Every structure is written in C-alpha cells, then in structure tokens.
C-alpha cells in the first residue's frame, strides 16, 4: 500500500493527510484552551474577593474579551474541526477529506489569526476590551487601536472555518463508501453536516459585521453610528444573527459525540436515531429565528418581543427530545463507566441543567431580571463547558486509543473527570445565585453580599484548571506508553472506525469497505 | 460513488457552497442594514420617525381628542452646543398641524455642524407622528457664537391608537463637524 | 446679602450629606438582608409578577429535572454491567417520541400565557405621573425631571481607598452614590432612558426595571413603587473601563416628602443659577472652596493637600496649582490626560463650586498665588473649550 508520513517538520507543514491535520487541529485547540484558561484564571483570581487586587479594570475587560474569543474561536471550534478531520473520513469509509490541500490551508492560517489576536495584548492601548460580543459603539468609536488587528484576525479565522465547513460537506456528500446511505451515517457525521451548513450560513455574516465595523472606523461610513443615520442596535441584530447559530455550532457536534459514546457503554443501540437527526435539523433551523432573545432589554416592539420569546421556548422541544433519547438509550442497558462514559453522562446531566436555565431565560419578562447578570454567565458556561468541553474530552478519551494505538491510564482519566466535574460545579453553580441576587456580568469588582459565592467560584476554577493539566499529562503519557490498545478498544463498539487497526493506519479505506 | 469517479459533482458542490458563503456576506453587509431600516419604519423600532410627510389632502382635525406631546433635547458626548426645546410640552388635537421650535447655540469659537437625530416613544406611535417640516432633515451649521431657532412642524395622525395619549420626542444633537464636509458646503452657501 | 449667600451655600452643602446619611442607615437594614440566593421579590406590582413567573418556571424546571435525572440515576444504579445487567435491544418507539414532544410543548404553553400578559403590562407606559430622563455616561448616570428644571449627576461615592483595599469596605460598597434618584411612592414613574456615549443599561432589581441606554435613541420603562426605601442596582451593559463602578441608587419616598425634596431641589437649582451670575469675594470663594475640596478632592489629594504620590500628586507646591490659572482650570474641568485617576469635574460641579475650589487650591497648603476665579470666568472657559 501507499507510503507513510514524510519525515521531519515538513510532514506537518505540508501534510494533506486528514489524520495529520486532525491532530494539528486538536493540539492547536488544546494550546488555545490553556491560554484561554489562563485568562479565565486571571479573571477568577481578581474576583476572588471584593476590591481590586491583581489587575486594573481596563486589563480585566481585556481578559474577559480575550477569554471569550479564544475559547469560542480558538479552543472549541478547532477542536470540533479536528475531531471531524480525524473521524469523518474513517466513519464513512472515505480515504481522506474531499479537498486535502484546502484542508492544509484552513488549518495553517489559524495560527496566524491567533498570533495576531494575542499580539494585541502587547499593543499600545491594549487588547480588545469590549467583550467577545463587541457591541458598537464601544467597539468602534470607543475602541482601542488594536481593534483593526482584531478585525483582521476574525476575518482569517472566519475564512478558516468556512473552508473547513466546505470540506466537510463535500466529504460527507461525495465520499461515502458504497452502501453508506445518509440514514446509516453515524450521528457525529450527521450533526457535523448540519453544523457545517450553519457555519457557511453565518460565518460570512460575522465577516460582514466586522467589515462594517472596519468601514465605520476607517472609512467614514456610519452603519452603527446614529449621527450619520446608522444605528448601534443594528450591530446587535447582525451580530446575533451570526451569534445564535454560532452557539449551536459549538454544541451540535457534541451531540454527535455523546450519541456515539453512550450506546457503546450502554451496550445497546442509540434510541431514536432518526428522531435525533430531525431534532438536530430543527434546532439548526430554529437557531436562525431566535437571535433577538439576546436583546430583550434593548427596546424591541411588543410583537417582536413576543415572537422571539415563543420561538426561543420552542427550542426546548427538540432539545428535550435529544435528552430523552439519551436517557432511554441508557435505560435497561448494561452500563459501565469508563472515562468517556463518565464525561458523557456528566454532559447529559449538566447540559440539561444549562438547557433548563436557558428555558428560564427565554421568558422575556423574567429575562429583564436575568439579562447580563451572572445568571446568564452560569447558563452559558453550563451549556458550553459540559456541552462542548466535556464532549470533546469524552471524544478524546474514546478515540485516543484508536489514534495512537495505546491505552490511556483509566485511573488518571477518572481522577481527571472527578476533579473537572467538581471544579466545574463549584465554579459555575454559585454563579446562578449571585446572578439572581443582582450581580452584573463583566465587572472587575463587586459589592460585599456576593463575596462568599465568588470565593467558592474562584476556588472551583483553579481546581478545574488543575484537572486539565492532569488531562494533558495523561494524553502525553498515553502517547509515550507501551500499553497497546486492541483494534476494537471497547466492547463491541459500533462504527467503521473500529474495523481499522489501532493505531489507525496512515492511509485507511483506500478501497471502500463493505457496508453490511 | 467515491469522489474520484465524480470530480465534477465535487467542483459543483464546492462552487455552490462558496457562492452561499459570498452570498451570506453580501446579505449581511448590503441587505441586512436596509431591511433593518424598513423593519424599523414598520415597527417603530428605536423610535425612528419617518421622513418628510406630505399629506395628499388636509387631515380632518379630531377636536374631541387631546394628545400630550413632550419634547426632550440631548447632546451627544462631544457636542458643546446649548440645545433645548422652547416648549417642553404641548397638548394637540390629532390632525392639526402644530409648529414648535428648539433653541440651539454654538458657544464655541469655531464653526460647527450638528445633526439632530429624532427618537420617539412609544415605538408603536412612530407611524402616526408626521413631520411636515423638521430641522432634523438637514444638518445644522452654526458659526462661532451663532444661535438659531430650529423649527419643527408636525401632525399627529387621527388614526393614533386609542390607548396612546402621550408622545415623547427626543432629539439628540451630534457633532458632525468635519465628517460631513460636502453637506456643510452646500448648506452654508445656501444660508449665506 | 452676604449672609444670605453664605446661608444658602451652607444649606446646600450640609443638607445633601445629611440626607444621604439618613438614607444610608435605612439601607443597612434592607439591602444586605434581602439579597440572598434568589431574585428579589421587589417592591412593585411588576417586580412581584416577574418574581412569580421566575418561581413558576423554576419549579417546572425542577420538576422536569427530577423526572429526567430520576430515571437516569435509577438506570445508572440498577442497570450496571457490574451488577450483571443484560442489555435490551429496543431502539425505537414513535409513540414515546410523540409523547415527549407533546408534553414539553404543553408545559411551554402553560408558561407562555402568563409571560405574555406580564409583558403586555410592562410595555404599557401610558398615564405616567412623573417623567424622568435617565442618561448613561461613561461612567455615571444623569437624572433629569422632565419639565421640573431639576437635573443632576449621580456618581459612585465609594472612596478609592476602599476599592484598593486600604480601608475597610462599608456595607454598601460599590452600591452607593453621591446623589440618588428620588421618586415618589404610589405614583407611576416613567423612565426615558438614553446614553451619551456608549450603550449602558439601567437596572434596579427591586424595581424589576432593566433597559438599555442607547446613544441617539430613547427607550422607555416605568415603575410603581409601593414601599418607601432605598433600592440599589448597577449598570448592566459593558460600557468600558468603569462599567463595574456606576451604580444606581433609587430612593422612594412618600409623595409629601418627595414634593418637599423636589421643591428644595428646584430652589437650590435657582439659587445656584443666581450664584453663577454674581461676583464672590475672595473670602467667600475660600470658604466655599474648602467645603468643595473636602467633599470632592480630599479623598485622594488629602485634606492637607499633600496627596499620595505618585497616583495622587500633592497640590501643595504643585506645578498646576502654582502655574498659569488656565492650566489649572483645564486640569479640574477636563481631568488629566495622563492620569485617569484625575477625573473631569467640569460637569459634576457647578461653575461657582469650580471657581471656589480652584481659588482655594491656589491659596492654601502653603500655595500663595493671590489670584482668584469668578463663576462667570469658569462658564466662559467651559464654553470656549
């Protein structure tokens, strides 16, 4: 058969192999996860007790902004693209991605984008300090000079995501092995297909909104400036037209991952496969008509407020279907709790909590009290950390033996899980309380009645951070270990990837496999 | 079924996906802002009032009904002008044309241009508030030390929903000196 | 005449802190007790309704959670491989899928009905008794009583020493202002909310009012407070550096007290206007200047003018206070361009106060410039710069 990887650094720079590129994406996102995590710890350290101790408010705002941007665009999205690169071809029996050279490109522009973004920290006037939602006019007329670099970085990462998405769609639609019909595809492939369409629909809108900012800042237009006939609220509409689907971009592939893991450890097929597909599609559709629920306090006419409230509440229905399906998949199975399963079960529980607080936020009159408080922070971290981060972690533990052919240390994995689980809940659960009690988000200092819960949250955050260091250690140890993994790795797992040898050969499915 | 046998379909697919991407970008930059403006006009979002109103025929005056109209003046951050309504509140009958004015003075030693941006609450009433004459239709150049009376003529539509009895109109004046050079030349030459 | 002026100055500077003092004792009882782990019930019909909605949806969520997690935990305990559980093989049931689509849908409808009626009520701003224009600034609020000629800024009054951990924090740390918004109880008060620079959001949890303040546009909201008291909130939209340091304090008082307060404020506004137009003697300026200095400057520059260098430089012998008077005025009116700790006082103090405090600084702490300013000088300076 064909040759193996090229030797040296050239292998990584010029590779067009989907497994190599998947690995690059995963390591890159791991690095970004730690950088974004350090920013989060700066925030939590400052909020450990009332008063200003460690950073000035100006720098604090840079930290919240960079934490959000790095985690969303640098950690979660590239990690999912990395998993897609690794797994989609071998899940559908394809030899590689459909557009391997573009694949190389879409990865290698990312480090440039994030170097530019991170370099703003050292610029005169500091890094972007207007929050990851960068509302105008704070991000236009009142922005630090580094905003131009920020816009450039967003353009590059947007281009990367769009190229990645095109590649994934082309691969899924054109490269499936004979007999691999759409409704036979693993759910991870399905959710990624839908995610990729979302990406193509909304990443250009993000590019559009930053382009309009750029024009307002440098070329005298006034899209977002009332003085010239524009409107700062228009920014929010365009941003959230991107932003809400973006939220689902960060969660739909996670649905796919746990839908692969739970059946394996329940030793029972996934319950309601087709309803899962339809639920994912309807969530994706609904994501386009709910954006203004991020703007309930902005002053929307009554009819609009009601429409967005009802549409948002509707999302609970397909999301509920998914949760019920996972629970029913576990029901009457033969359960065991290896690390991937622990993370997946925690995903279902904690994501449901995040979903329920989302339902509360959908009630527009109540949202007048919740909006822009720590209740919202608690909500979206409950959705994103157990949602995106836990599912990615679960996926890594689940497929790592397939990737490198070695078995990870189960005990260390379980320790990682329990530390992360405790850290996460300690960090984010008290945020519900302080939010309801009246603590606004994005403040560097707070009044005394919030002190105790914030101290707990800060301790939890450091515990969570320590857990991730253990994760890194475990991954490196696995790669270096000599404990061979079997080809199947788990007990009768479903999917083409398990028919390959462990580690998966550099070139796989050069001849399409037989589908039962 | 594999890709190599159908490279054409891949090219087609990728081209259509790319086109979608470009289309969505264009949608965001060129379509969303105008759509948003239309949307604002219909719903009164942000209290944006309509442009110049020209009645095809004289509206009947509804003598039985009285509506309170309040006037507010605001300066945006860098605007040093004195700017205030001459009357802060009047009661009008729907259908009757009413003339009010704002006072503006440029107390600085530089010539400046201001632009007043109207905003009306409640939003539901914006479609029923017609301006037949308004200083907000143009930018306002004021020479150093100059003062001016800025005129607004309006008609409250008799169709104004029953439950609305108070309208509040705010003007925020922005300093657009320098950013509106072309307009400035036109209006100063016209004024002198 | 002189005695008159002195008297009015005194009432102005003594009355204001005295009022604040009486409010703050009241506050200690209310604020800390009531803010716990849940949304405050609040003191208006709307806030109680919102709290009710919040609790209803919360209990629905708890119910759903109990059912879902109940089944899950039962499964995780009962159907473990280690306990010898054998896996079944069912994987589809259209009836179940339909059932768990319809039940959540029904719950949503049950929730949507009261939410809709509350929302309609919240949007009805008609027939207000008092109209107040609220303007967000970086980083303070301005309140204007529409048609009443009363307007003032409301700044954070927590001293820097508490923020930077040099002094013990008081119970209302970061939730206290120099001049609270005063509203009458049992009246419909309408808020017209806008901003001067970037987007802010005006929020008081006990009133359940949160509305974005958008530059160039106006938003409206309303409240009907039923209990006199002090209600505290904060800016709820990231608005730059000091977003966390622009609290909202609302004092609700019975109508009679409110009218009395408003009358005093109107008289004070008229007085201040009159003061601006008259000439002050050097001694008057020094006396007023000392009061203004002690309320506004002494926290940083210290009562003896020695400051706490390098952040808070000394005024005694400083280049600014012993240099050209125009430069001194520029510093006080516009703040320092190099040192953000020195804020712009141009809009926060009246012309009379500015003239007095500048005169005082130039002629105290060993500074002996001998020159002075009149309010009209400051007014002219402000207008030309």
UniProtKB/TrEMBL annotation, chain A:
TM annotation in the entry: 24-45, 65-86, 107-127, 147-175, 187-215, 247-265, 277-296, 308-328, 340-364, 376-400, 416-435, 455-476
GO biological process: one example: respiratory electron transport chain
Membrane topology: Multi-pass membrane protein
Pathway the protein takes part in: Energy metabolism; oxidative phosphorylation
Keywords, sorted A to Z: Cell membrane, Copper, Electron transport, Heme, Iron, Membrane, Metal-binding, Respiratory chain, Translocase, Transmembrane, Transmembrane helix, Transport
Top-level EC class: translocase
Keyword Transferase found: no
Domain Cytochrome oxidase subunit I profile: 12-516
Function according to Swiss-Prot or TrEMBL: Cytochrome c oxidase is the component of the respiratory chain that catalyzes the reduction of oxygen to water. Subunits 1-3 form the functional core of the enzyme complex. CO I is the catalytic subunit of the enzyme. Electrons originating in cytochrome c are transferred via the copper A center of subunit 2 and heme A of subunit 1 to the bimetallic center formed by heme A3 and copper B.
Family: Belongs to the heme-copper respiratory oxidase family.
Descriptive protein name: Cytochrome c oxidase subunit 1
Gene: ctaD
From TrEMBL, chain B:
Pfam families reported for this sequence: CtaG_Cox11
Lineage top rank: taxon: Bacteria
Keyword Cytoplasm in record: no
Lipid bilayer topology: Single-pass type II membrane protein
Main location, first listed in the record: membrane
Keyword set, alphabetical order: Copper, Membrane, Signal-anchor, Transmembrane, Transmembrane helix
Transmembrane stretches, start-end: 12-36
GO cellular component terms, A-Z: plasma membrane
Entry's localization field: Cell inner membrane
GO molecular function terms listed in the Swiss-Prot or TrEMBL record: copper ion binding
SUPFAM superfamilies noted in UniProt: Ctag/Cox11 (SSF110111)
Gene3D superfamilies documented for this protein: Ctag/Cox11
Described function: Exerts its effect at some terminal stage of cytochrome c oxidase synthesis, probably by being involved in the insertion of the copper B into subunit I.
PANTHER family: CYTOCHROME C OXIDASE ASSEMBLY PROTEIN COX11, MITOCHONDRIAL-RELATED, CYTOCHROME C OXIDASE ASSEMBLY PROTEIN COX11-RELATED
Family: Belongs to the COX11/CtaG family.
Name of the protein this chain belongs to: Cytochrome c oxidase assembly protein CtaG
Species assigned in the record: Halioxenophilus aromaticivorans
Lineage of the organism: Bacteria, Pseudomonadati, Pseudomonadota, Gammaproteobacteria, Alteromonadales
TrEMBL record, chain C:
TM regions (residue ranges): 57-77, 98-120
Any single Pfam family the record assigns to this protein: Cytochrome_CBB3
Reaction catalyzed: 4 Fe(II)-[cytochrome c] + O2 + 8 H(+)(in) = 4 Fe(III)-[cytochrome c] + 2 H2O + 4 H(+)(out)
InterPro entries (UniProt xref): CcO_II, CcO_II-like_C, Copper_CuA, Cupredoxin, Cyt_c-like_dom, Cyt_c-like_dom_sf, Cyt_c_oxidase_su2, Cyt_c_oxidase_su2_TM_dom
Any single Gene Ontology cellular-component annotation: plasma membrane
SUPFAM superfamilies reported in the protein's UniProt record: Cupredoxins, Cytochrome c, Cytochrome c oxidase subunit II-like, transmembrane region
Compartments where located: Cell membrane; Membrane
Cytochrome oxidase subunit II copper A binding domain span: 127-264
Occurrences of domain Cytochrome c (ranges): 284-365
Co-factor note (free text): Binds a copper A center.
EC annotation from Swiss-Prot or TrEMBL: 7.1.1.9
Keyword Electron transport tagged: yes
Record has Heme as a keyword: yes
Role summary: Subunits I and II form the functional core of the enzyme complex. Electrons originating in cytochrome c are transferred via heme a and Cu(A) to the binuclear center formed by heme a3 and Cu(B).
Family, as annotated: Belongs to the cytochrome c oxidase subunit 2 family.
Record-linked NCBIfam families: CoxB
PANTHER family: CYTOCHROME C OXIDASE SUBUNIT 2, CYTOCHROME C OXIDASE, SUBUNIT II
Record's protein name: Cytochrome c oxidase subunit 2
UniProt source species: Halioxenophilus aromaticivorans
Taxonomic lineage: Bacteria, Pseudomonadati, Pseudomonadota, Gammaproteobacteria, Alteromonadales
